[in-house]
Amino acid sequence: MKNIILKKENILIKKGFLFLKNKYFGKIKIPNDIILNVNNNIIYLLSLSYKKQNEISFLKIIKNLLIGISNLWQKTVFFSGIGYKIYIKKNEIYLNLGFSNSKILIIPNYIIIEVSKEKIILKSVYKDKMGIFVNKLLKIKKFNPYKKKGIFLEKPILKKSSKKKQ
Q1: pTM of the complete model
Q2: Most buried residue among 27, 96, 141, 159 by CB atoms closer than 10 A?
Q3: CA–CA distance, 102 with 79 (Å, rounded to integer)
Q4: Class assignment of domain 2-70?
């Protein structure tokens, strides 16, 4: 049995979902093999299966959500290249990255996006779902460390390979 101590968060368990609210709002679906109990601002987790991996991963998701509802998770994505333009219309992000057609991504309703000249700032309550969306962005145009063109995260790991002839 694991437990999480809450400070100021409002909590509600209804129809298999856990709702949390502080500054922002978040919800998670409770897996079938986990039982949640709430007593005096403490969440108790009990796993019905003999495998503890579901319990531990669900515990991590709840802890990440608790951080996200107090202050949003934030990732900064940079793009560099001649003629690269990114703009937002309604709930879609348009990426002009040197292809013949512009790439269009639908922005999920749980992600807030701010676009400036060379960077995109993504904010969300959910850390894992934002990571999936950032991966979609990064796969559209991979960063080339030699030409310094493409889409990359705030601190890119530049993998330059040097091979010696034999």
Answers
A1: 0.84
A2: 141
A3: 15
A4: alpha beta
For the chain, residues with pLDDT lower than 50 are none
Dihedral of the alpha carbons of 45, 50, 51, 56, in degrees to the nearest 10:
20
Q: Considering only CA atoms, which of 137, 135, 128, 94 is closest in space to residue 110?
A: 128
Residue recorded with tokens 């034999």: 166
pLDDT in tens, 98-124: 889 999 999 999 999 999 989 999 999
How many CB atoms within 10 Å of residue 61?
Answer: 15
**Residue 100 structure tokens:** 């013949």
Q: Please, which residues have CB within 8 angstroms of residue 6's CB and are 6 or more apart in sequence?
A: 41, 42, 43, 66
Q: Give CA 32 to chain center in angstroms.
A: 24
> 73-153 has which CATH code?
3.90.930.12
Q: Where are the domains of the chain?
A: 2-70, 73-153
Cβ contact 42:1 at 8 Å: no
